[in-house]
From TrEMBL:
Organism phylogeny: Bacteria, Pseudomonadati, Bacteroidota, Flavobacteriia, Flavobacteriales
Molecular function per GO: cysteine synthase activity
GO biological process: cysteine biosynthetic process from serine
Catalytic reactions of this protein: O-acetyl-L-serine + hydrogen sulfide = L-cysteine + acetate
Protein name per Swiss-Prot or TrEMBL: cysteine synthase
Cofactor names: pyridoxal 5'-phosphate
Domain Tryptophan synthase beta chain-like PALP, chain residue ranges per copy: 6-282
Record-listed pyridoxal 5'-phosphate binding positions: N72, G175, T176, T177, G178, T179, S256
Presence of the UniProt keyword Translocase in the record: no
Listed CDD domains: CBS_like (cd01561)
Residues where N6-(pyridoxal phosphate)lysine is found: K42
Assigned protein family: Belongs to the cysteine synthase/cystathionine beta-synthase family.
Pathway: Amino-acid biosynthesis; L-cysteine biosynthesis; L-cysteine from L-serine: step 2/2
Keyword Lipoprotein: no
Protein's organism: Gillisia hiemivivida
Length: 294
């Protein structure tokens, strides 16, 4: 029995796709990160970033935290900060779904909404300017090594273990890039032949949680050498696959998970054999007010 909610972060299920691919020599496994207590893969990074900052003495119980987010990281940070009794302000574009805003507030966070036209970049600028006053500690998930190290310590080892060391390809959507950086680092240490595939949106496509960053906003934790290949997915493809995951596989997830699964299926169709793992990064219930499932 595990008596702590924090002990429920990680060790998420790895389930085999039953409908998405036809080749019997290729297995596609979907890692259900929505099973984390905060509902997404970001619980791992949020916990490691806050816990490590406390352990180093970078922050204490009197610190005020601030972070820009597009959704899942904010929810995870709100949950973890609440557990540690820390004050946190989360900054996000005003067009974020109401479910995400309300969930952060439910965990006790202050939520500041920035102009939608400026996107997450504007939210990042706002948080950075406020942190320069010296009154706030900015988590800075985009440059925080404790982000990717969370996946080096947990996500990578879980995939290696749960595929019986047989994984050949790992597919992940890229936002802050923490998931793919940490998982790649671990898996490559086990077997350098494992192929790491990142997923980005096509030009002019908007997929929540996946970004093709302008150079000046590229996450500092990102190392392109740790990604063997990038597959671009359109928002239409991502939406169709997200709906298909729910209807055909019983996996209720968000659009970035559909993007990752769409790229994974495309990859599987190229392979003669292999064991492919794709990250399903969150749950679909935080997108119900959008047009994702209409």
């Amino acid at each position: 029995m595990n008596n702590s909610i924090l002990g429920l972060i990680g060790n998420t299920p790895l389930v085999k796709s039953e409908t998405l691919i036809k080749n019997p020599k290729v297995s596609l496994f979907l890692k259900l990160e929505g099973q984390n207590p905060g509902g997404s893969v970001k619980d791992r990074a949020a916990y490691n970033m806050i816990k490590s900052a406390l352990e180093r003495g970078d922050i204490n119980k009197e610190s005020k935290l601030i972070e820009a987010t597009s959704g899942n990281t904010g929810i995870a940070l709100a949950m973890i900060a609440g557990i540690f009794k820390l004050d946190i302000e989360l900054v996000m574009p005003e067009n974020s779904t109401i479910e995400r805003v309300q969930t952060m507030r439910a965990y006790g966070a202050k939520v500041t909404l920035t102009d939608a036209d400026g996107g997450i970049e504007n939210a990042r600028d706002y948080a950075e300017e406020k942190s320069k006053t010296g009154d706030y500690y900015m988590i800075n998930q985009f440059a925080n090594n404790d982000n990717w190290k969370a996946h080096y310590k947990t996500t990578g080892p879980e995939i290696w273990r749960d595929t019986n060391n047989e994984v050949t390809h790992f597919v992940s959507s890229m936002g802050t890039t923490g998931t793919i950086m940490g998982t790649s680092t671990f898996l490559k240490e086990q077997n350098d032949g494992i192929q790491i595939v990142g997923v980005q949106p096509t030009d002019n496509s908007r997929i929540p949680g996946i970004r093709k960053w302008p150079k000046e906003y590229l996450p500092k934790i990102f190392n392109p050498k740790k990604v063997d290949r990038v597959i671009e997915v359109s928002d239409v493809e991502a939406k169709i696959m997200t709906q298909r995951l729910a209807k055909d596989e019983g996996i209720f997830a968000g659009m970035s998970s559909g993007g990752s699964a769409s790229a994974a299926v495309r990859l599987c169709e190229e392979l003669e054999e292999g064991v492919v793992v794709s990250i399903v990064c969150d749950r679909g219930d935080r997108y119900l007010s959008s047009d994702l499932f209409m």
